[in-house]
Amino acid sequence: MRELSGAHLANLHTFLVAARHLSFARAADELCLTASAVSHRIARLEDELALKLFQRLPRRVVLTEDGERVYRTMQQAMDALTEAVQARSDEQVAGQLTFHVRPSVAQCWLVPKLADFTARYPDIQLDIRVGNERIDYRTRQVDLLLCYSDGEHPGLVSTRLMPERIAPVCSAQYARQLGLTDNLGALGDSTLLHDVAAWDNAAFDAEWQLWMRAAGWHRALPSRFLTFDRSDLCSLAAMHHAGIAMGREQLVRERVARGELVLPFGDFLQVGKQGYYLVHPRHEPMPRRLQVLIQWLKDVASL
Fold first, then answer.
1. 65-86 vs 6-21: helix axis angle to the nearest 10?
2. Nearest to 97 by CA among 301, 282, 280, 299
3. Which among 79, 83, 176, 218 is most buried, taking Cβ atoms within 10 Å?
């Protein structure tokens, strides 16, 4: 078997970093190299393996099918190596995790709790990314996703973190102005505030439609509305009298408790299987750092 020289290992490591970032420039920053040096190392590795690992496009690079296969194999080997090292001590859990979180649950639920995680696991570096885009796990750019959904994520591991209930919310002033309290008929004169990115491929009024069916309301929704791509912005707009939003209990209950928002039509309802789910590719074995992050999230959610 051909022995790996220091140069070969350097090229492999450069490939691993470049594949993780899908950027030679960002890999160069992490490795303290120039982008040209990264490109040369990748080219040498491709020659050694007789494989094309990256497709070079005008402003970016993407992994080829061979590149994805090599990256998955290397990442699995790195996970196994990390597990072997960390198995010696439960107290020393280290490494980087890319954690993608939908914006509203990041803002209203996760971020205020992170100090506890960093205190418990100071050697785990969380790279928290926020956005509504669909996640492509083929190259394992994301270790874990926290999202609001029905839990159906084919081909992935999906674990329910906590349930969610929903109810219309608005300011007390808006409820008085339109006579909304215990009067569903007045909803027709309201301005609805929609989260158009409630979950992947959701209709712009999907949450309202779910609640209307659960509440037994069979009329058409009002034609006046504003749309946002974040639930917390809908609630903020409602708090400032812009209309009535579909509030998620986990995200708005503190504002309801403070009287900044009211529930004109009664308490929150559970609708379907909607809730907050942790989603990730299947790992064998699962890296210890990912295990402790998932367990910490479960512990916090159970409080």
1. 110
2. 280
3. 79
Q: Phi then psi for 112, rounded to 5 degrees? A: -65, -15
- Homologous superfamily (CATH) for 164-273: Periplasmic binding protein-like II (3.40.190.10)
H or E element at residue 43: helix 35-49
Whole-number Å distance between alpha carbons of 160 and 148: 10
Closest CA relative to residue 89, chosen from 64, 118, 121? 121
Predicted pLDDT of residue 228: 96
The letter for the amino acid at 217 is: W
User: Do the strands 54-56 and 124-130 form a parallel or antiparallel pair, or are they unpaired?
Assistant: unpaired
Q: Which pLDDT score, from 0 to 100, does residue 90 have?
A: 47
pLDDT at site 126: 93
Cα 301 from Cα 59, distance rounded (Å): 41
Residue 1: what pLDDT? 37
Query: So what's the pLDDT on residue 11?
Result: 84
* 15 burial type by CB count under 10 A (0-12 exposed, 13-18 middle, 19+ buried): buried
Question: For the structural domain made of 6-75, what CATH number should be given?
Answer: 1.10.10.10
Residue-level pLDDT at 59: 80
First to last CA, the chain: 54
Residue segments in the chain with a per-residue pLDDT below the cut of 70? 1-7, 79-92, 138-140
Predicted local distance difference test score (pLDDT) of residue 83: 58
Separation between Cα atoms, residue 113 and residue 109, nearest integer Å: 7
